From TrEMBL:
UniProt superkingdom: Eukaryota
Biological source species: Brassica campestris
Membership in a protein family: Belongs to the POMP/UMP1 family.
Keywords assigned: Chaperone
GO CC terms in record: cytoplasm; nucleus
Protein name as catalogued: Proteasome maturation factor UMP1
GO biological process: proteasome assembly
Length: 141
């Protein structure tokens, strides 16, 4: 009876593995990388919501739901963590993102940087299976 009243929690929120991920910075958790990035993301979300509404009014409410299911199915196809990253080509073609010309197309892929840490395959699989917490891999040193 007493154990039902207790709430299990960790002090400070989510436990972070400092040896695998590195030390936590407060500023990076609060502030985004750039103010225009948040504006771009909110504009993209509102454009997608408007597109869903138009498709729902034109073709019926079942089509946006089917499109969401297709998007969820295509977003699950990923390679295991390792030296070859998952390209998510099917999802890019489905959403039309393959036609976008991003910074990685003309500047360089951030994964090709000299400061990029190699991915720990075992930790990535542990995170995916829910055996370990934290990001799959730290992105940069």
């Amino acid at each position: 009876m007493e154990s039902a009243k207790k709430i299990a929690h960790e002090i400070g929120g989510v436990k972070r593995d400092a040896l695998r991920v590195g030390l936590n910075g407060v500023k990076s958790d609060i502030v985004g990388s750039h103010p225009l990035e948040s504006s771009y993301e909110s504009g993209k979300r509102s454009h997608e919501a408007m597109k869903r509404t138009i498709i729902g009014h034109t073709y019926g409410t079942a089509l946006p739901l089917k499109m969401d299911m297709d998007r969820q199915i295509l977003s699950r196809f990923q390679r295991p963590s390792g030296p070859i990253p998952s390209s998510m080509l099917g999802l890019e073609v489905y959403t039309g993102a393959i036609d976008d010309f991003g910074f990685e197309d003309y500047l360089n892929d951030p994964r090709d940087s000299e400061t990029f840490k190699p991915v720990d395959l075992h930790h990535g699989v542990e995170v995916r299976l829910g055996m370990s917490k934290g990001p799959v891999a730290p992105s940069f040193m």
